[in-house]
Automatic annotation (TrEMBL):
CC annotations in GO: extracellular region
Domain Spondin-like TSP1 residues, every copy: 116-170
One of the GO BP terms on file: positive regulation of non-canonical Wnt signaling pathway
Extent of Basic and acidic residues compositional bias: 174-219
Protein name (record): R-spondin-3
Keyword annotations from UniProtKB, A to Z: Disulfide bond, Glycoprotein, Heparin-binding, Repeat, Secreted, Sensory transduction, Signal, Wnt signaling pathway
Compartment list: Secreted
Function: Activator of the canonical Wnt signaling pathway by acting as a ligand for LGR4-6 receptors, which acts as a key regulator of angiogenesis. Upon binding to LGR4-6 (LGR4, LGR5 or LGR6), LGR4-6 associate with phosphorylated LRP6 and frizzled receptors that are activated by extracellular Wnt receptors, triggering the canonical Wnt signaling pathway to increase expression of target genes. Also regulates the canonical Wnt/beta-catenin-dependent pathway and non-canonical Wnt signaling by acting as an inhibitor of ZNRF3, an important regulator of the Wnt signaling pathway.
Domain R-spondin Fu-CRD: 11-110
GO molecular function list: heparin binding; signaling receptor binding
Length: 243
């Protein structure tokens, strides 16, 4: 072992130097060089820092630097996050998105353009005027639809969600507020009254008929039975006409 190489290192180093830091790492740790001014110091980390990607070899695991426009990468040629001012697309960092795509400033990615989509129109509403459906001949009717897919920044804008058109109806008089209800209530009371009157009359008629029937039965019980008058022709003796 070289005199400036130490075996009792700290921070995951297998071997180290007072001047260069870690020279090799313990198993499964990544070796990376960090620049401090004009000097490079070796360190051992469990994962590579931002701007680096890890590669494993039988003798050493190293952190290699990503491309200059990558913030993080999977390999040198496949970025997973771009630095400010670049948009990620298929593992590459671009200043401008390709045709047919748009830049998403929230995710800093190139995404597909999304156009607005609307549902089918609803049926036309009843013909109204000033919120009423009676008391007029010409009014308006409307129909509506909903937005089911909002557009992206470069997508086609949404169409109108409501339409109105003129309509003509058979003129119909409006009942005064409260009058219709009052008339219905009066008719209901009158019908109940007529029904009650008819019921009372029927009850009185049945009671009178029952009373007459009972009176006739009582009279038949108290009056004596009349004897049948004899037939005069039957009492007369036969006349002898021989002499």
């Amino acid at each position: 072992v070289h005199p400036n190489v130490s075996q009792g290192c700290q921070g995951g180093c297998a071997t180290c130097s007072d001047y260069n830091g870690c020279l090799s790492c313990k198993p499964r740790l990544f070796f990376v060089l960090e620049r401090i001014g004009m000097k490079q110091i070796g360190v051992c980390l469990s994962s590579c820092p931002s701007g680096y990607y890890g590669t494993r070899y039988p003798d050493i695991n190293k952190c290699a630097k990503c491309k200059a426009d990558c913030d993080t990468c999977f390999t040198r040629n496949f970025c997973t996050k771009c630095k400010s001012g670049f948009y990620l697309y298929s593992g590459k960092c671009l200043e401008k998105c390709p045709d047919g795509l748009e830049a998403n400033n929230h995710t800093m990615e190139c995404t597909s353009i999304v156009h607005c989509e609307a549902s089918e129109w609803s049926p036309w509403s009843p013909c109204t005027k000033k919120g009423k459906t009676c008391g007029f001949k010409r009014g308006n009717e409307v129909r509506v639809r909903e937005i089911v897919q909002h557009p992206s920044a470069r997508g086609n804008p949404c169409p109108a969600t409501s339409e109105s058109r003129k309509c003509i109806v058979q003129r119909n008089r409006c009942q005064k507020e409260g009058k219709g209800k009052k008339n219905r209530e009066e008719k209901r009371k009158k019908a109940n009254k007529d029904e009650s009157k008819e019921t009372r009359q029927e009850s009185k008629g049945r009671a009178a008929r029952r009373q007459n029937r009972e009176q006739r039965e009582n009279n038949n019980k108290t009056q004596p039975k009349k004897r049948k008058a004899p037939n005069k022709e039957e009492n007369l003796a036969p006349v002898d006409t021989a002499h």
